[in-house]
Design brief:
three-stranded antiparallel sheet
Length: about 240
């Protein structure tokens, strides 16, 4: 797995200051598996890295813990949370459902400005695929589907879908590694098909395309994570 080299403190400070900067950077590194599950989180080292006191570091870690991205152990040490494989099936069920619901609602309720945002996010995704930039692909894919959810005009569905997309980034990072960080062009094409259905206000087709798109990704991730390791020995 390729390692992301941490930027200098001065460069990192350009993204914000204090708690938000620490939170944003650590959250991205956890979700993108730069900090793998089980990695220790050391407040002293983080304070040195960001050139700040431990107070904003602790506040950022509290936020990350609230999102389930880090765990504090009984001995008070802190680590990146493990990926919840036990709840993988219900997670994927919820994810596929949100793909279907949000894409259907976007077909029914979108406005012109929504289409402009969806097209813009799709262009960014296609560019990331062309560049074979896995981390950009994951981020732009989430932004594309989030734009579709916003077009559906249901903030509750949009909020839940955004949370699921965030949680799924670690699954997708593992999945893209299986492609050597080269995503097949068909995912770009499938996005375009969904956009066309949304533009045409064909809710049934939009939902059907979203379901197929989501389920094939889920199935491939399942195959990657649950491999057949049985021995076939001739006796």
């Amino acid at each position: 797995m390729k390692k992301k080299v941490a930027g200098s403190p001065s460069r990192e400070r350009k993204r914000g200051s204090g708690v938000k900067m620490v939170y944003d950077l650590l959250r991205d590194e956890i979700l993108d598996l730069v900090l793998p599950p089980g990695s220790p989180i050391d407040e002293v080292q983080l304070a040195e890295r960001f050139k700040m006191s431990r107070t904003p570091i602790r506040e950022a870690l509290v936020r990350l813990a609230g999102e389930g991205l880090i765990d504090t152990l009984p001995n008070r040490s802190t680590m990146v949370s493990s990926i919840d494989y036990l709840n993988m099936s219900p997670f994927f069920d919820a994810l596929v459902l949100m793909y279907r619901v949000t894409t259907r609602l976007a077909a029914e309720h979108h406005r012109q400005q929504d289409l402009e945002a969806i097209h813009a996010r799709q262009a960014e995704f296609a560019e990331a695929v062309q560049a074979q930039d896995a981390l950009a692909m994951i981020a732009t894919n989430a932004a594309f589907h989030s734009a579709i959810a916003e077009a559906g005009r249901n903030p509750y569905f949009a909020g839940l879908f955004n949370r699921l997309l965030d949680e799924g980034r670690r699954f997708l990072r593992l999945y893209y590694q299986s492609y050597d960080d080269r995503l097949p062009q068909r995912f770009v094409d499938e996005h375009e098909d969904m956009i066309n259905a949304i533009v045409a206000r064909d809710a049934d087709l939009a939902e059907r395309l979203a379901k197929v798109h989501a389920e094939q990704i889920v199935e491939q991730i399942r195959k990657l994570l649950v491999r057949d390791r049985r021995l076939d020995i001739t006796l």
